[in-house]
Amino acid sequence: MIDKPIRVTVFKRDGRTNYEAQWTDPLSGKTKMKSTGHRVKRDAERWAGRWEKELNDGAAGAGRATWADLVTRAERDFLPDKREKTRDSYRTAIGDVQRHLRPKLLTEITPEAIGRLKAGLRDGGVAPATVASKLRHVKALLRWAERQGMIDRAPAIEMPKVEAAAKGRPITDAEFAKVLAAVPDVVGESRAASWRHLLRGLWLSGLRMGEATALTWDDLDGPHVRLGGPFPAFLIPGRMQKGGKDTVTPIVPDFLAFLQGTPEADRRGFVFNPAPVQGTDRLSADWTSRTVAAIGTASGVKVKGDEPARAHDLRRSFCFRWSQRVLPQQLRVLARHTAVQTTLTYYAEADAGMTAEAVAAAVRGLGAG
């Protein structure tokens, strides 16, 4: 932030008709000059006074806004209304800009600079889809800066083309048993029970990892289970949801039976308490996801090429199983999908599987004939 005010003075060069204004740019330290358009010194000084005010107010100096100004104002005015995960994504993108471009002025962030940012991310091994996600956050932030009058116009950002990546697949009951069997190999036998408890809960509930690790029995201000009332449900606040809305999700029967297996006296605090492999602090959702991924690797279960089973594949398995039992609009509620297209992909997969089975049966019938 620039606190020292700009001072504008006037002078007339030999051979010139009008007075000129001059001032020192506080960022570059360079002297700037501009014609006042006036021959009379008093008129020129009045013009310079107005110009000085505009420069200090920013009306004529959008180019003076610094990257640090934007980060400060974004933290105060732009990010607080975002979900926590979204705020973290913006902060990560801000860090990428600072690390790769080191901008001082906002006007330094040009299309050419964005190209360097993209190249730096790619060279650092960042996946194309992740590069695109980071650039979307930078683009949104710069457009907000334009609306705030910090820059005249946000630079054009050409988004990289990202091929649709093949997603994972639901894992089978047998594969899930292999995942459970691999738990001690990663966390040790003494911690295995707490991790198997988490994995079974993810398998039966369709919860996202962030939701599962925050789920409690009794904290009504956060994600929590409700076993009484009109129907068993878990309630998740909008700040943790992609759609940004509070949700009440019915608990499916097998997950209800799983929860009821916890004695009433123990239904306090967090529902899932995976034991940390090191230290005693409660694990973050990110660290828990990494451990589950390590368990998936140890199990040998592959869901896409050489990619091992991860936490989200357990949610995908939940959705696939229930797509064969309920209607699409009901699965959308159970899975808390924002877009119905996401829900329908599970029905398409189920239809394809049933078609493949029917074709195989028909072939077997022809062979028997």
UniProtKB/TrEMBL annotation:
Sorted alphabetically, which PANTHER family does this protein's record hold? Answer: PHAGE INTEGRASE-RELATED, PROPHAGE INTEGRASE INTD-RELATED
Q: Which UniProt keywords apply?
A: DNA integration, DNA recombination, DNA-binding
| One Gene Ontology MF term | DNA binding
Q: What is the lineage of its organism?
A: Bacteria, Pseudomonadati, Planctomycetota, Planctomycetia, Planctomycetales
Its name, as the record gives it, is Site-specific tyrosine recombinase XerC
According to the entry, every stretch annotated as the Tyr recombinase domain falls at 166-360
Record-stated family? Belongs to the 'phage' integrase family.
**From which organism does this entry originate?**
Alienimonas californiensis
Q: Where is the Core-binding (CB) domain?
A: 69-146
